[in-house]
Amino acid sequence: MSIDLNCDMGEGYGRYHVGNDDGIMPYISSANIACGFHAGDPQVMRRTVQLAKLHGVAIGAHPGLPDLAGFGRREMELSADQLYADTVYQIGALNGFCLAENVRMSHVKPHGALYHMVNRDRELACALVEAVLAIDRELVIYTLPRGELLQAAQAANLRVAREFFADRAYQADGTLVARTHPQAMIKDAATAAARVANMLARKRVVTVTGEEIDMEAETVCIHGDERQAVLFARSIRTELERLGVVVSACGRT
């Protein structure tokens, strides 16, 4: 058995340092790198690509809404045309740094509020898929195991990696609990690791209200901006290796 362990990274900008990318990178197999809209800037993007290359970690674009102040976690109104252009712009920017470092981009994963918007809205989902197709149809889309983005990507014959969140709580419909909810985040690293092990073994997850739902995924996410992200990455990696699970990127390397 194998699983991809991905993390949102490169989310500092200017004088603002966010997350411990150096500490997390040795434990993961894929990095979702911010592209300058919700976080990141040219210097941070370049350094994060170099760091991923150093550790043999697959590189993915992590496009978000143009909302630095809200870290891309506030929903905004935008048209499908605007989303298409914004996504091409962001993926293209990160791809430039990949070309400069002689590495290939592996995947695309929307960030924050955009992630949820494209999983609810078919028109927006199709716009994001069209943006990916315009750049490189070999890129893998990371998304929820159910939703509009999954269906749009599959309809376009793009590869999809279904994603499980180790550090986020789930609702009964398989969507993530809103961050405003007091139980939205999993705070204990051992609990997060056990959730991943249970998902792999039983293809189930316990929701925030206590019932179990089906859950099957090829990639597991942790959030690099969380205070204990290094501990979470290390604990999950250690548990996976204890179980004999191979940690490897599911996108192109």
Structure at a glance:
Helix content is 39%, strand content 18%. It is an alpha/beta fold.
What does this structure look like?
By secondary structure, the protein is α/β, with parallel strands linked by helices. The chain is 39% helix and 18% strand. It has 8 helices and 10 strands. The strands form 2 sheets. It has a 7-stranded parallel beta barrel with strand order 1-2-3-4-5-6-9, surrounded by 4 helices. It has a two-stranded antiparallel sheet with strand order 7-8. Helix 4 crosses helix 5, helix 5 crosses helix 6 and helix 7 packs parallel to helix 8. The longest helix has 21 residues. The protein is globular, with a radius of gyration of 17 Å. It starts with a strand and ends in a 6-residue tail after the last strand. The mean pLDDT is 95.
Question: How is the secondary structure organized here?
Answer:
Layout: E1 2-9, H1 21-24, E2 30-34, H2 42-55, E3 58-62, H3 80-100, E4 105-108, H4 112-120, H5 122-135, E5 140-143, H6 148-155, E6 160-165, H7 189-202, E7 204-206, E8 212-214, E9 219-223, H8 229-242, E10 246-247
Parallel strand pairs: 1-2, 1-9, 1-10, 2-3, 3-4, 4-5, 5-6, 6-9
Antiparallel strand pairs: 7-8
Helix pairs in contact: 3-5, 4-5, 5-6, 7-8
